[in-house]
Amino acid sequence: MSEGVIKKFMYVNRKPPYGTVYALESLEVVLIGAAFDQDVSLAFIGDGVYQLTAGQSTGGIGMKNFSPTYNALGDYDITKLYVEKESLEERGLAIDDLMEVVYEDEDEDYAEKPSIRLVSRAELADIMAEQDVLLNF
């Protein structure tokens, strides 16, 4: 990658938030990538949609709940979180079951805007085709 060229990186989250290291590792890599001025977006498909569900409680499994970290993504200019509509529906979930993740749009007097974008499987395929790099977790 040549210096000064910003590439589009999409991190594809396919795993549930707990039980494996994939979700937490993805989030850490996303934050590192954004620190290096990558154009970062995230996709949540399959069981990955559970990573964004509201009201996560991990006390019963003895793991730290890292879901509040998604609220910091806007501070790293990560404002594109694509959630596949069909994956939600297949799991009996709707957009209202997800946490609210927002960013402050500096071009509009720091108005809060939603980062989560609900897209169809076909739309997500088109968005993925526009990326320079896809990293699957």
Would you give an account of this structure?
The chain is of the alpha/beta class and 137 residues long. It has a single domain, classed as Hypothetical Protein Ychn, Chain: A (3-Layer(aba) Sandwich). The chain contains three helices and seven strands. It has helices at residues 22-35, 85-90, 121-129; strands at residues 8-13, 39-44, 81-84, 102-105, 111-114, 116-119, 133-136. β4 (102-105) and β5 form a beta hairpin. It is globular. The model has no long low-confidence stretch (mean pLDDT 92).
Spell out the key features of this protein:
137 residues; alpha/beta
Rounded to the nearest angstrom, the radius of gyration is 15 Å
Strand order of the largest sheet: 6-3-2-1-7
Number of helices: 3
- Mean of residue pLDDT values: 92
Helix content: 10-25%
- Into how many domains do the coordinates divide? 1
Structural class: alpha/beta
Outline the secondary-structure elements.
Elements: E1 8-13, H1 22-35, E2 39-44, E3 81-84, H2 85-90, E4 102-105, E5 111-114, E6 116-119, H3 121-129, E7 133-136
